[in-house]
Fold this sequence. Notes:
Blueprint: H1 5-20, H2 32-54, H3 65-78, H4 85-90, H5 100-109, E1 113-120, E2 123-129, E3 135-141, E4 149-161, H6 164-171, E5 175-178, E6 184-193, H7 204-213, E7 215-217, H8 243-259, H9 263-269
Antiparallel strand pairs: 1-2, 2-3, 3-4, 4-6, 4-7, 5-6
Amino acid sequence: MTLSPDQERALGRLRELRRLAPDPAPTADFSLWGELAQERRRAEIDQAERLARNGLGFGDQIVSGEERVQLASWLAAMTGWWTTQEPLATLDDLVAELPADEVVRICGEEGLALIGEREHHGDRQLFLVDEGGLLAELFLERSLPGNPEPWSLTIYGNVEIVDPVLLVLAARTWSCTTESDGRRLAAGSRGWHLRNSIATGGSLRAALAAMRASTRPVLPWKIPPITGWLGPDSPRGLEKQPHEQIALAARADTRAALDTLPEYVRAKLGPCLMTA
């Protein structure tokens, strides 16, 4: 199949990352948690290899043969919740407890440019966007006196699916729909936890390269990828309130946050940012 120049560059980036960290090591933790992590990691790798061999019944293959199986196995090991810190450090990736400027630097090196920020109840939200219309929120939580610290990074977007297997391995939970012209589109979010060294979400660099290689951008967005809300699980002061009240307040705050995006970004992404 013929890839676009952007897809070719992304596939080259994916191969380069795999060369730099060819064999992500499992955790050496022999506690109950460590054994569980190894078991889940092995299961995810096995599933990725089966997907690479059997496919999902639609779409194309941007790589084939044994390279496809090996790449799928590597992606599962590098972009899973059970990915250890050592291979992430090898790639100068999102390891735990990075300061905000380092997270922004890594995002910038992968094409996500800082385009705005917002303070709310002492917390901070930094917004980044790339040329293909991926929107990222870096949430900084004020947990102690002093400056807020990075808590999570979440990326939202709309894409046209080319290679569904590699997209599933990179983006994990995006939903799929078929347009009237036959294109299959996907929308959703992909998140990383930045505070702890366990269950972080794996490699940002590898996930972005795989997503970009296996898809084409869709602009403006056609499917609202934000189905919940931005920021923490519960807005400040509402932690013990009923879920309905939390959701109402959090979604109102999300709409206010999206309204602060620069006009050119909102024009680029279009009106379909979040569900009603």
